[in-house]
Amino acid sequence: MSEQGKQIIAKMASQLAPTQQNKLVVNGYTYRETRIDRRAEVAAVTAGLPTVEHVIEVGYGDDARGWQELLREAGPLEFEPVPFDHPLYVLFSSGTTGLPKAIVHGHGGILVEHVKNLGLGWDLKPGGRLLWFTTTAWMMWNALVSALLLRSSVVMVDGDPAWPDLAQQWRLAEETRPSVMGVSPAFLMACRKAGLAPGRDFDLSSIRVVPIAGSPLPPEGYDYIYEQLGPDVLLVNGSGGTDVCSAIVSGSALQPVHRGEMAGRWLGVDATAFDVDGREVTGELGELVIRRPMPSMPLRFWNDPGDERYRDAYFGMYPGVWRQGDWVRFSAAGTCVVAGRSDATLNRGGVRLGTGEFYAVIEELPEVQDSLVVHLEDPDGGPGELLLFVVAELDDDLRRRITTALRSHLSPRHVPDAIAAVPAIPRTLTGKKLEAPVKRILRGEPAEAVASQGALAAPDALDAFVRFAQGARTS
What we know:
Layout: H1 3-14, E1 21-26, E2 28-31, E3 34-37, H2 39-47, E4 52-58, H3 67-70, E5 87-92, E6 102-106, H4 107-121, E7 129-132, H5 139-145, E8 153-155, H6 168-176, E9 180-182, H7 185-193, H8 198-201, E10 209-212, H9 219-229, E11 234-237, E12 239-241, E13 246-250, E14 264-265, E15 271-274, E16 286-290, E17 300-301, H10 308-315, E18 322-330, E19 336-341, E20 346-348, E21 351-353, H11 355-362, E22 370-376, E23 385-391, H12 396-409, E24 418-421, H13 435-442, H14 447-450, H15 463-474
Helix pairs in contact: 7-9
């Protein structure tokens, strides 16, 4: 655990009511063939929770303890009524825009949103089964657990979902027979790029619905799903976030699927796009906003006296109107495309460009494993500098083909000023690219001030950008 993580735990502990509590912990886990011992981290967290009276350590693997061993004696289930806004759990934002926010969600709002989202959006039914690989650091884990509200079962995936190979999740689907299988766009496009044919190699006939979330899905991803799973499968592409722990825009069993787009505003969500002056726009990119409250908006941020950070995060740009922080385009028909984070949107010659459209072109090139694009604005009003970073064996030929692809598929404005190779693209634990933190690093800010290492899938992925920034400042 990082020092920052320990400090967060200590602050949270200091605000807890002085009541006795029990703590259920797991002492380790297995990743591929390696056993990871977490007893030191468990001790550090426990030390920061002075109200805990009993720590119940559940072993992992061969030394696992059964549930019955933890029960001293059986008794009737007891349910304690709580207010609608009683705190349920604290979720941490993914860290794509900086240090994670500690978001406190309430019982009632989450219950309403998840029953709506899973039941009406994903068409999950009693007796159904949901498979969606997620870490406990992503809001999709909370959604996965909520399948139990609909009397559906869940498939719990442990370890590396891409081991022993990329086909493991499809193999698991054949074995467990889910009715709903959720996947991330990054996983789906990686399978497509690797030439996997899960519809041919596995029996996936149980899957009726495929929800998609986590990042923009290019049109080719839609084609791939229907090529592999057939025309009767429902692809539900949605976008929301840890902030509301639900969807803001989405498809559903009640709407047609539009290639490359989301079906529209999600049920009960007054979402639209605003320009910088707070005017609603259609047919052009704008800030994704919510004009009226929805049940699962956070109760507050933890350790946020006076709710100052809360108000600034969501209502600082448009007073009284929630700004999600995504860049979106709604069509006249109500369908929409999320182009990426608005704070990572590129302002190129007065024209705003979404980062998602870059990646849809660049990552189609077989040599490019991953990519990230940022724009460093000129404070004096000049064109600034558009920088593209790729995970690839970069040479002059690949540079030329990247440039040609961006110019022909998008526009000359999309051609970067410089292309550089890096060992890895920094992503959160949920697979989102850290565009805004990278931009801040390139502006000279220290990495530890813009991103939490504990929120990164690969903690050292920012190192190459720090070196790039240092080289640029000294050259």
